UniProtKB/TrEMBL annotation:
<dbReference type="InterPro" id="IPR006059">
    <property type="entry name" value="SBP"/>
</dbReference>
<comment type="similarity">
    <text>Belongs to the bacterial solute-binding protein 1 family.</text>
</comment>
<feature type="signal peptide">
    <location>
        <begin position="1"/>
        <end position="21"/>
    </location>
</feature>
<dbReference type="Pfam" id="PF13416">
    <property type="entry name" value="SBP_bac_8"/>
</dbReference>
<protein>
    <submittedName>
        <fullName>ABC transporter substrate-binding protein</fullName>
    </submittedName>
</protein>
<dbReference type="InterPro" id="IPR050490">
    <property type="entry name" value="Bact_solute-bd_prot1"/>
</dbReference>
<dbReference type="InterPro" id="IPR006311">
    <property type="entry name" value="TAT_signal"/>
</dbReference>
<keyword id="KW-0813">Transport</keyword>
<keyword id="KW-0732">Signal</keyword>
Length: 451
C-alpha cells in the first residue's frame, strides 16, 4: 500500500510552486470559511461528521467539507492535489507518508501555532506527539488516534481444540521451536479429514483450517505480520530510530525470525503466500473459517465485529526471547497542506480535532483509540459495550513495551526494495539469508539520498 516515490518525484519540481500557488485549492467560489478535509477510513467518517457539527457550533464562522476515499485512491489523489494545487486544506496523515511530504514542502509546520495558542501536548498518549516531529525538528501534525496489534481468534475453534483463554494469553515463542505459540497454532490447524496438526496422519497438503492466517510478506514494516516476533527477538529496524538512517534487515536476529515464521507454511500451519494473496482478505478468510487466529491492528475491531457468525475474541501477543510482549505503536494525525489559503480555519479544525472535546466523540464511537489519554476510559467502556475486552491492545502501552513505526523520508524507496524481497522469501523463491543483499540495497538508497 505504498505510493511509488518515482511517480511522486516525477512531479516534485512543481510541488513547491503548487504549494505557493494553491489558492482556493483549485475550487472556485468556495464558501467563506469552509475547510476541506480528507480521510480514508469509511468506518471513521460518521464520527468525524459529528466532530464537524460540534466544530461548527463552536466556530460558526467556519465549516468543514469532508471527503472519504479508499486507501490507494486517497494517497494518489493527495499527491495529484499537491502537484496541481488542489489538495485539501487538512488531511489525515500517516507516519509512513508525512516525512516525504514534509521534505517536499507540502506540509505546514504548526510549532508557532501551538505556542501561540498554548496547546498542552502532554494530554496525548506518551510518545504520540513526538511522532510528528520531522527530521528537521519541526512539527507537522496533531495526534488523532493510536493503535497496537493483538491476535483475533475464533473462540469456538479454540474451545473445540481444548485451548483455554489463559493458554492463549500466556503464549511464548522463540525462533528454535516456536514455543507454546507454535504448539497452539499446530493444535488449531485442521486438515480436510479433521485431523489436527498435532495428531498422527495430519496432511499438510490438504488443510481445511489454518491455525494462523496472514495477508502478505509484511513489506518493510511487518506491522501486522512479523514485527513483534522480530522485536522480541532483540531486533530493531534501524539506527537513528524512528528516523532510519541505516537499516538492519540483514541482521541475524531478523533473518532467523523470518526463517521460523515462514517455517509455519512448510509445516502446514499457515497458508502459502499465494493463498494469502489470492484476493480473499485475511478478515474474510477468518470469517469463513479458514483461519483460527489472525494478527491485526486495533483499527480493525469494527471489521471483525461485523463478521457476524464468528465469535471473535482477543489474545495477547506472545512473550519472546527477551522476556517481553511487544507491539508496534503507531497513530494517525491531522496535517495542514502548506498551500492552503485558509490557514486560520484549517488550524482551528486541526486543533479542535486534537482536543478532548472532539476526541470524546471519537472515543464513544468505538472505532479507534483516541490520542487524548483522558478519553481512553470512555473508549474502553464503548468497546466493552460492543463485546470487546481490549486489554491485549492496551497492555503493551501500559508496560512501555512498544516500538515505533519505522519512519523516514525515503520510506517509499525502502518499500520498493523490501516488499518484493519479503514476498520472495515468503514464497520460498529466495532464502532469509538473501535479505542481507536487500538490506544493502536499502542502505545504498539511504546513503545516496543523504549525500
Amino acid at each position: 500500500m505504498s505510493i511509488s516515490r518515482r511517480s511522486f518525484l516525477a512531479g516534485a519540481a512543481g510541488l513547491a510552486a503548487a504549494a505557493v500557488a494553491g489558492c482556493n485549492n483549485g475550487v472556485a467560489n468556495r464558501p467563506a470559511g469552509e475547510v476541506s478535509y480528507w480521510l480514508w477510513d469509511a468506518a471513521q467518517l460518521p464520527m468525524y461528521l459529528e466532530c464537524a457539527k460540534a466544530f461548527r457550533q463552536k466556530f460558526p464562522q467556519y465549516s468543514v467539507k469532508i471527503e472519504q476515499f479508499g486507501w490507494n485512491d486517497y494517497w494518489s489523489n493527495l499527491v495529484t492535489g499537491f502537484i496541481s494545487g488542489t489538495a485539501p486544506d487538512v488531511f489525515t496523515s500517516h507516519s509512513a507518508r508525512y516525512p516525504l511530504f514534509a521534505s517536499k514542502d507540502q506540509l505546514l509546520a504548526i510549532d508557532e501555532l501551538i505556542d501561540r495558542d498554548g496547546l498542552d501536548l502532554d494530554i496525548y498518549q506518551d510518545g504520540l506527539a513526538e511522532r510528528w516531529i520531522g527530521d528537521d525538528g519541526r512539527r507537522y501534525g496533531l495526534p488523532k488516534d493510536w493503535d497496537t496489534e493483538a491476535y483475533f481468534y475464533n473462540s469456538a475453534m479454540t474451545a473445540d481444540a481444548g485451548i483455554s483463554a489463559e493458554q492463549l494469553n500466556s503464549m511464548t515463542w522463540n525462533p528454535k521451536d516456536g514455543g507454546t505459540f507454535e504448539q497452539i497454532v499446530r493444535r488449531l490447524t485442521v486438515d480436510s479429514k479433521g485431523r489436527r496438526g498435532d495428531q498422527p496422519g495430519f496432511d499438510k497438503n490438504y488443510v481445511k483450517t489454518y491455525g494462523l492466517g496472514f495477508s502478505d510478506g509484511g513489506d518493510s514494516d511487518g506491522q501486522t505480520s512479523w514485527s513483534w516476533y522480530a522485536a522480541t527477538n532483540g531486533w530493531t529496524y534501524s539506527e537513528g530510530k524512528p528516523w532510519g538512517t541505516k537499516f538492519f534487515y540483514g541482521d541475524a536476529k531478523f533473518t532467523e525470525t523470518i526463517a521460523w515464521y515462514r517455517s509455519l507454511i512448510t509445516k502446514g500451519y499457515m497458508p502459502t503466500l499465494a493463498q494469502a494473496k489470492s484476493g480473499v482478505g485475511i478478515t474474510e478468510a477468518f470469517g469463513a473459517g479458514k483461519y483460527a487466529i489472525t494478527p491485526n491492528g486495533s483499527w480493525m475491531l469494527g471489521v471483525y465485529a461485523g463478521l457476524g457468525k464468528v465469535k471473535t475474541k482477543l489474545a495477547r501477543l506472545p512473550e519472546g526471547p527477551n522476556g517481553k510482549r511487544m507491539s508496534m505503536m503507531n497513530g494517525l494525525a491531522d496535517s495542514i497542506w502548506a498551500g492552503t489559503d485558509r490557514k486560520d480555519a484549517a488550524w482551528a479544525w486541526v486543533s479542535f480535532l486534537g482536543s478532548k472535546e472532539a476526541q470524546d466523540i471519537v472515543a464513544k464511537a468505538a472505532v479507534v483509540f483516541p490520542a487524548v489519554k483522558a478519553c481512553m476510559p470512555a473508549a474502553q467502556q464503548a468497546f466493552t459495550a460492543d463485546g470487546w475486552d481490549i486489554t491485549p491492545f492496551l497492555e503493551p502501552v501500559q508496560a512501555g513495551a512498544t516500538f515505533a513505526y519505522p519512519a523516514n523520508p525515503n520510506a517509499a524507496d525502502v518499500s520498493s526494495v523490501m516488499k518484493p524481497a519479503m514476498d520472495s522469501v515468503m514464497a520460498f523463491e529466495t532464502d532469509p539469508a538473501d535479505l542481507v543483499e536487500a538490506n544493502n540495497n536499502v542502505n545504498r538508497i539511504l546513503a545516496a539520498a543523504s549525500s
